[in-house]
Amino acid sequence: MVKIWKVLSKRFSSGKQRIHGRSRGMIAVRHRGGGLKRKYRFIEYFRQKWLGVCLYVLRIEYDPNRTAHIALCSILKYGIFFYIIAPAKLKVGVFINTSLIKGAHIGDSTLVKNIGSGVYVNNLELTVGSGSKLSRAAGTGSIIVKEFDMNYSLFKLSSKEHRLISKECFVTLGSVSNWKYKLLKYTKASENRRKGIRPTVRGLAMNPVDHPHGGRTNGGVTCRTYSGKIGLSKSTRKKRKFSNNFIIIGQRKYKLTQE
């Protein structure tokens, strides 16, 4: 059992403005407000900056701003400290590195072309040099399905989406830590209030001027959002987005094929 630290050093954090959902005093985002104060921890998403340098894992810490745990790493030679997203089963006191050759241990960062099929990875780059973008939440992990061609590999993400990613992108071996987060059940209203989530009222219980479902006349009306847009079975992704060509099987298409 790995000890999760909650002691924070001021050198690696800064103040963070709370999301209150207001614009000039008016409600801009519903159900937001309150919550406990938080400090933002600086996370290193560009592991390729430390090519050939070994990182020593000092401890695993709790981060209130994300679902996954974070690891405090140090470059002993230069006395540099920073946080990374902790992979599952990462042990304290081990050395991890970033290299252009095949990684051997959990937490090592390497290129996609050095990883074979069936290996779980996290902190994927979408484009070369963009930094980690995918598989950063607790318990998530992506797996290589096949090598599509000389330049791209086909990944299956945690959302079941199949996507092409360049073989020159950096990834980290292993899945993300804290997989038990999805098993948590909040039984008290105060737990959500501490997170900054205010009470939610059903649209059917409102007046017609407040919500499309209001007035208890919901017969024959499709599910709508607060602003009047279709709420179910409607894709909100842009049809002409440049990255659509890299998606082989989308999330929605995968769900339809399983049904």
UniProtKB/TrEMBL annotation:
One of its GO terms (molecular function) is structural constituent of ribosome. Residues 21-98 form the Large ribosomal subunit protein uL2 RNA-binding domain. GO terms for cellular component: mitochondrial large ribosomal subunit. InterPro entries: NA-bd_OB-fold, Rib_uL2_dom2, Ribosomal_uL2, Ribosomal_uL2_bac/org-type, Ribosomal_uL2_C, Ribosomal_uL2_dom3, Ribosomal_uL2_RNA-bd_dom, Translation_prot_SH3-like_sf. GO terms for biological process: mitochondrial translation. Residues 104-230 form the Large ribosomal subunit protein uL2 C-terminal domain. This is Ribosomal protein L2. It comes from Cavenderia fasciculata. The lineage of its organism: Eukaryota, Amoebozoa, Evosea, Eumycetozoa, Dictyostelia. The gene is rpl2.
